[in-house]
């Protein structure tokens, strides 16, 4: 199945401008064109966009995404380096998750603290 750029944008959650930008910087191969010269995206293209979106969501720098995309084009011989990039990024994601977990604990503590204050205040009024 093929998709127009608008459909690909909607399905991927990326804007049309972002799709064009990703193409311009080499993250996405230039898509096929229909008879009118308009970009058409395949299911494989959308799968790649989904992967890129996940990597951006986890904070992977564009520089690293570009390296990964370039290696991908060179085939199976680059599997080791691609795996290494993902290992490195996974370590970064895990560290960020740990930081966020620590922040969440502080938020939970403060919320609990304010709930206790509210409870004490309400009991003081009704007593």
Automatic annotation (TrEMBL):
It comes from the Bacteria. Keywords: DNA-binding. Residues 2-71 form the HTH merR-type domain. The keyword Disulfide bond does not apply. The keyword Oxidoreductase does not apply. Pfam families: MerR_1. PROSITE patterns: HTH_MERR_1, HTH_MERR_2. This is DNA-binding transcriptional MerR regulator. InterPro entries: DNA-bd_dom_put_sf (IPR009061), MerR-type_HTH_dom (IPR000551), MerR_fam (IPR047057). One of its GO terms (molecular function) is DNA binding. It comes from Saccharothrix longispora.
């Amino acid at each position: 199945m093929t998709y127009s750029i608008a459909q690909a944008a909607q399905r991927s959650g990326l804007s049309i401008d972002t799709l064009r930008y990703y193409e311009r910087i080499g993250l996405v191969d230039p898509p096929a064109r229909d008879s009118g010269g308009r970009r058409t995206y395949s299911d494989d293209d959308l799968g790649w966009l989904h992967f890129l979106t996940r990597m951006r969501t986890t904070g992977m720098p564009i520089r690293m995404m570009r390296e990964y995309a370039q290696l991908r084009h060179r085939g199976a011989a680059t599997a080791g380096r691609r795996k290494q990039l993902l290992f490195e990024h996974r370590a970064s994601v895990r560290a960020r998750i740990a930081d966020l977990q620590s922040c969440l604990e502080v938020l939970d503590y403060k919320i609990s603290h304010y709930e206790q204050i509210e409870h004490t205040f309400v009991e003081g009024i009704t007593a």
